[in-house]
Specification:
heterodimer, A: mainly alpha, MetI-like fold, 2 domains, B: Rossmann fold, OB fold (Dihydrolipoamide Acetyltransferase, E2P), 5-stranded mixed beta barrel, 10 helices, 19 strands, binds adenosine-5'-triphosphate, binds magnesium ion
């Protein structure tokens, strides 16, 4: 036994070398839950989607892709989800760059987490009140800049016809009408849904970006600074490359959330027009036409498009450096 | 700007201070370094060496005082404007760039033409002996290799001031000696100022023209390596410069510098290095200067370790004084010995009552 030790490695050690040990058992309940809650419904839905009312195998899919009322929902959902995710990321990065250096980070992050805990419906109701035609936002805007608004008179005096600007420069008036003539339409359309998705999605995006950003060793930026890199170069050459993999993950998570938008698309959007997202189509198929088979097919299409985008983004992620973002020892 | 920074004559710290909340990490740092000088900043862990370096590089703002390069005040400039080369204590290599790109980063930021940059990078890589590692990422290097990349990255830009924060701490003994020589050579080649942080007195003495001893954020002594080795100005500096034997005694006789202490009933002669008001004093001696003889302080050997050419012993004298000495042979624990030292090698400072 002692002269050929390699042949007598106990099974337990051999399994451990492959990453299987006692702790692995703790994963089992999770696996069971996953199978019951996710894999089974998924497979059932997949099976159901191939059994349409008309009896053919691909009937549902054929129907989806031939009916503009249905297939256009994919484009409409993407047209909402991608801008929302990009806006959130683009806004979150500079904010996180600043917040990273602040002392009272906790207070701010707590305030930002609140919208997540409120839920989409509450935010939607708030927005209806705030941004609606009779809402505060529009009332304040109209009082200030509307035809009878406080600032309209002075603005007209300066920039309007025969105003100071017109008379001194002789290039014609800059303003011929009040800046705002009626309430802005901010709800029950595309803008409403976009705004609500930004409001509910931003904190999540921000917190993720912030945590990825704080994972970058501040010494790296200092080193870059001593080597002559100004703030812009430091961001471009140090922060951005190290942040990109995290941004890809954040994009995917934010996108998945935005892609399955339902409540705000109904409450704040135009659910039969520009914000008729794919989840609405699935809902209508299931609960208005009672065609579960078609609903399953729509859900499958939804899943596949999601997956394609996520795979594309994560695939692009493998092209960049993904190692630890520390600068040295340890 | 770059021209004034590269043709300067001296770097001057004018009562520079830095606080962290209520902690005075640096108090009134006040000295200047001439162009071409190699200065070591020596001090125990936590005394503010890295803080001082960061303030000079512009990575930490100063709380008080000012920093000057000739007549240009630089403590108000950003680090990228000062353009000092810095080797960070924790390296701070860019993890997503190859060794080559790390080293070339400063050249790229300065807009050095590609061909010229490539030549200088190759040279720097050869200097730190990393030819075989040039295309690797920092994460794939050993600690010592990373440290050498950090050195190469700082010197390749040929900065007017090079700041090094313990740049050799992770190297093996042989490579450390080689890199010391290399750093000395680089320094001579650049003709710039090198400020070198270390807590290894050997390293400081072998490299530096002058040594600044820092303790608790205060400069305790500035001098040549010889000054510090032979004539530490204060007890705490002596303590740090390797005078490990600390022998409290009572003054019994004194003529000029020559002084005789009474240590637990035995007379012990030394050289006075500070003013003396009371009659209690502390004598310090290097273990190398303490030897076993016929007369001297009586003590009992506690341990003896092998040091190649000789042995290094520790013993306990009556009164609980610990003594370290150079032993010609391996003494067994418990052996009684008499320890003595040449009075010129015994430095006496004013001290608390024994
Ligand atoms: N960002 C900080 N906030 C608060 N205290 C700090 C900070 N940085 C350093 N200090 C304190 O300032 C003192 C000096 O620190 P510094 O890093 O300069 O020590 P050092 O001499 O470089 O030590 P070492 O040899 O261990 O690197 C220490 O007491 C340390 O705790
Ligand atoms: Mg330090």
């Amino acid at each position: 036994m002692s002269d050929t030790p390699s042949e007598h490695v106990p099974l337990r050690l051999r399994l451990a070398a492959k990453g299987i040990d006692g702790v692995t058992l703790l994963v089992l309940p999770l696996v069971v839950a996953l199978i019951l809650l996710f894999v089974y419904p998924f497979l059932y839905g997949l099976w159901l989607s191939f059994r349409p009312k008309d009896g053919s195998l691909l009937g549902n899919y054929a129907k989806f892709f031939s009916d503009p009322f249905l297939y256009e929902t994919v484009g409409k959902t993407l047209w909402l989800a991608i801008p929302v995710t990009v806006i959130n990321l683009v806004v979150a990065i500079p904010v996180a760059l600043r917040v990273r250096l602040m002392r009272r980070q906790r207070v701010l992050t707590t305030i930002l987490v609140l919208p997540i805990t409120l839920g989409t419906v509450l935010v939607a109701e708030g927005m209806l009140n705030y941004f609606g035609p009779q809402g505060w936002f529009n009332r304040v805007l109209l009082t200030a800049l509307g035809p009878q608004g406080w600032f309209n008179g002075p603005l007209m005096d300066v920039f309007g016809p025969h105003g100071w600007f017109d008379q001194t420069l002789m290039m014609g008036p800059l303003m011929t009408a009040p800046l705002i003539s009626g309430p802005l339409k901010l709800v029950h359309n595309y803008t409403g849904v976009l705004l609500s998705l930004v409001i509910t999605g931003f904190p999540f995006t921000f917190l993720l970006v912030l945590s990825y950003l704080t994972g970058i060793d501040p010494a790296l930026e200092k080193a870059a600074a001593t080597l002559g890199a100004g703030p812009g170069s430091r961001f471009r050459h140090i922060i951005m490359p190290l942040l990109l993999p995290g941004l890809a993950v954040t994009f995917c998570l934010g996108f998945v959330q935005a892609y399955s938008v339902f409540p705000s698309a109904v409450l704040l959007g135009a659910p039969s027009g520009p914000t008729r997202v794919i989840s609405i189509a699935a809902y209508e198929a299931a609960f208005e036409q009672y065609d579960y088979s078609l609903a399953s097919a729509i859900a499958m299409i939804m899943g596949v498009t999601l997956l394609l985008v996520v795979i594309a983004v994560l695939g692009a992620r493998t092209l960049v450096y993904r190692g630890p973002a520390g600068g040295g020892k340890g | 700007m770059a021209s004034t920074l590269s043709t300067f004559k001296s770097l001057r710290l004018n009562r520079v201070g830095r606080d962290f909340g209520r902690l005075n990490a640096l108090k009134e740092l006040d000295f200047s370094i001439e162009r071409g000088e190699f200065v070591a900043l020596l001090g125990p862990s936590g005394c503010g060496k890295s803080t001082a370096l960061n303030c000079i590089a512009g990575l930490l703002s100063t709380t008080r005082g000012s920093i000057w390069l000739d007549e240009t005040r630089i403590d108000t400039m950003g680090p990228e404007e000062r353009g000092f080369g810095m080797v960070f204590q924790n390296y701070a290599l860019f993890p997503h760039m190859s060794v080559r790109d790390n080293i070339g980063f400063g050249l790229k930021m300065r807009g050095v033409p590609k061909a010229d940059a490539a030549k200088r990078i190759d040279q720097a890589i050869a200097t730190v002996r990393l030819e075989a590692q040039a295309e690797k990422l920092p994460g794939q290097l050993s600690g010592g290799q990373q440290q050498r990349v950090a050195i190469a990255r700082a010197i390749v830009i040929e900065p007017p001031v090079v700041l090094m924060d313990e740049p050799l701490s992770n190297l093996d003994a042989k490579l450390r000696l080689e890199m010391r020589q290399e750093i000395r050579r680089i320094h001579a080649g650049l003709g710039s100022i090198t400020l070198y942080v270390t807590h290894d007195q050997d390293e400081a003495m072998s490299l530096a023209d002058r040594i600044v001893v820092l303790r608790d954020g205060e400069v305790r002594q500035i001098g040549t390596p010889e000054d510090l080795y032979l004539r530490p100005a204060r007890l705490d500096v002596a303590d740090f410069m390797g005078f490990r034997n600390r022998i409290p005694g009572r003054v019994v006789a004194r003529s000029g510098d020559h002084i005789i202490l009474d240590v637990a009933g035995t007379e012990f002669a030394g050289t006075l290095r500070s003013s003396l008001t009371g009659d209690s004093a502390i004598a310090v001696v290097r273990p190398d200067d303490m030897s076993v003889g016929e007369t001297g302080l009586a003590a009992t050997v506690e341990a003896c370790e092998y040091r190649g050419r000789h042995f290094f012993g520790s013993a306990k004298a009556p009164g609980g004084i610990e003594l370290f000495f150079r032993a010609p042979a391996a003494y067994r624990p418990g052996t009684p010995v008499k320890l003595a030292a040449d009075p010129s090698r015994v430095l006496v400072y004013e001290g608390a009552t024994p």
